Amino acid sequence: MRGFCMQSTVWFTDLSAPPGKSLLDKTGDLLRAAGLPEKIGAGDLTAVKLHFGEKGNTAFIRPIFVRKVVEEIAAAGGKPFLTDTNTLYLGGRCNAVDHLRTAITNGFAYAVADAPIVVADGLRGESALRVPVKGKIFREVSLGAEIVNADAMVVLTHFKGHELSGFGGAIKNLGMGCASRAGKLAQHSSVSPFVDPAACIGCGTCVAHCPSGAIAVVTEKALIDPKTCIGCADCIVVCPEHAVKIEWNEAGPAVQEKMAEHALGVLEGKRGSILFLTFVTQVSPFCDCYGNSDRPISPDVGILASDDPVAIDQACADLVIRASGSDPFRKTHPSIDWTVQLSHGEALGLGCRKYELAAL
């Protein structure tokens, strides 16, 4: 029943590592305790969803931990690949070529992680599939095609602050991180992109790439027809002058609800073949999409695992608040109520806020 849920189990290990028991060993124990071998079938193409970090960021999950996850998936009979989707904004991960270069620069080369990288939404973020959902806002969501096509998933999340959702956890990693560029635009804005006439040179590149014919060059400037625009956001990244802009007009609560509904789409068909592993370490105030990572806003806590994205996010937030003695997310982003993503996710049937913490 939607809106009703049973208590979920969240497995937890702290960061202690006595002789003979490294933190990598404990990570493997955590994955097995949370049921990873039962979620991976023989030959399953298994997406290891993570954030490779923007250039200059240092807070993302260390590649050696990713390699441990890859080893555990392979031991269970799966065929792991590392994946993420291209960004909506311009930067070091807005197309597959730059994305791969950034990932390798940050240490996720095959020689380190022992798995290939597959950018889930293709060369320019156009490889997407629409998945039906029963949301309050959406009836279908646009996701990276190879996320949808994967047989199984292990979602690796670095728990940190975020200016629109208070914190970025498993729900954000699913909903925002697995969305295609069109899905990301739908979460951040309720209107079409627009062209800054001062930057536009009328070259027509956006016209050539627009799949719906929504753009025309008029008096040497590109114009987007909002009635014809389908919200694919291709024009944003193909413009050589960076003249196409996003109207970032959605407030935090709406973004969180849209994010949860996209996360629901990712779970479609994968309820029994997905696991979440979250690192509550170097809890930076902002997302790993930034080209820097400021000093942590919380003490390091540990690593958590669950098959419930709502429960694991709730547990992470509770542990951070307990370790900090107050709520660092509300201190850092005082206008954001981070509980919206949890309550909406629970109402959608995404997971349960009630949990039992099982320590290893």
How does this model look, in words?
- This protein has 14 helices and 16 strands.
- The chain has 360 residues and is α/β, with parallel strands linked by helices.
- It has two domains: 8-187 and 250-359, 3-Layer(aba) Sandwich (Rossmann fold), CATH 3.40.50; 192-245, Alpha-Beta Plaits (2-Layer Sandwich).
- Strands 4-3-2-7-14-15-1-16 form an eight-stranded mixed beta sheet, sandwiched between helices.
- A hairpin with a 7-residue loop joins β5 and β6.
- The longest helix has 16 residues, at 252-267.
- The chain is globular.
- 51% of the residues are buried.
- The model has no long low-confidence stretch (mean pLDDT 95).
